[in-house]
Specification:
The chain is α+β, with helices and mostly antiparallel strands and about 240 residues long. The chain contains 3 helices and 15 strands. Strands 1, 4, 6, 7 and 8 form a 5-stranded antiparallel β-sheet that branches. Strands 5, 10, 11, 14 and 15 form a 5-stranded mixed β-sheet that branches. The chain is globular, with a radius of gyration of 21 Å. About 30% of the residues are buried. The structure holds 2-acetamido-2-deoxy-beta-D-glucopyranose (3 copies). The site of one 2-acetamido-2-deoxy-beta-D-glucopyranose (NAG) has 8 residues, from helix 3.
Amino acid sequence: MASIAELKALLVFLVTIASTLFLVKSANTNKVYSPCLDTTVQVSDAFTFAIAFSATKSFYFNSSLELSPCDRRLDLTSQNSQISVFRPKVDEISLLTINTSSFSPSNYGGYMVAFAGRKYAARSRPAFVANGTYTVTSFTLVLEFKKGRLQNLYWKRDGCAKCSGNSNFVCLNNQDCALRTTSCKPQGSVDCSLGIQLAFSGTDKHFSALNSWYEVQNLRQYSLYGLYSNLRDSLTSQYNKIF
Ligand SMILES: *[C@@H]1O[C@H](CO)[C@@H](O)[C@H](O)[C@H]1NC(C)=O
Ligand SMILES: *[C@@H]1O[C@H](CO)[C@@H](O)[C@H](O)[C@H]1NC(C)=O
Ligand SMILES: *[C@@H]1O[C@H](CO)[C@@H](O)[C@H](O)[C@H]1NC(C)=O
């Protein structure tokens, strides 16, 4: 028969194992929550970045120098702009959504830039989202890291393959499938909320390769929406109706 002391020791041992397993599973070591600070990450960390909506010219200082929205010289806060902050898990494919029922990108200049970091600031090129004529709802954003530090953010386009031949879509600049803004709510019936598929590439701070980008490359357009059951009805079924 085990003594009380032995049972206690066993209990402590089991609790330690359980909490270790729990920590290993969900460990986040990144304490940086601001998109305007620098950090380095490892697989399983969460990472904060943001997307700013404004007119293209707001993202340039003195009409020529493309700066991060974190850079005070841009003075985005005094421009007509909106910022959304996200904190996805590193190396997990995520689908971010921006509900446009109470926020219309075309009212805020119609372009967006993804960004993070201060001294090591990275920002994407401005991407067209919407104006009075066209609305683009589907994007893929690649976050590229080197030794855990964000190097680059870029919008990955796959041409207009997924909408060619579909009269509900218009192919803009041979790169974006756009809906007519008049078919978007509230004028039309389509929920034109934005869906941004995230993918990670490069290496984390332990030189582990970030692979989610390779998985996204192999996913078919809109397939990710099917993984998010709460979005399936609001985003895919309407596309199914259109297709
Ligand atoms: C803005 O650009 C103009 C022309 O390129 C240049 O002469 C001027 O010095 C720049 N101003 C600042 C504040 O950098
Ligand atoms: C956006 O919000 C509206 C109102 O709350 C809701 O009806 C709609 O389903 C939402 N769309 C998405 C894509 O979540
Ligand atoms: C909307 O954007 C498209 C594509 O950039 C452009 O061709 C069109 O002229 C714009 N329409 C308006 C009303 O700004």
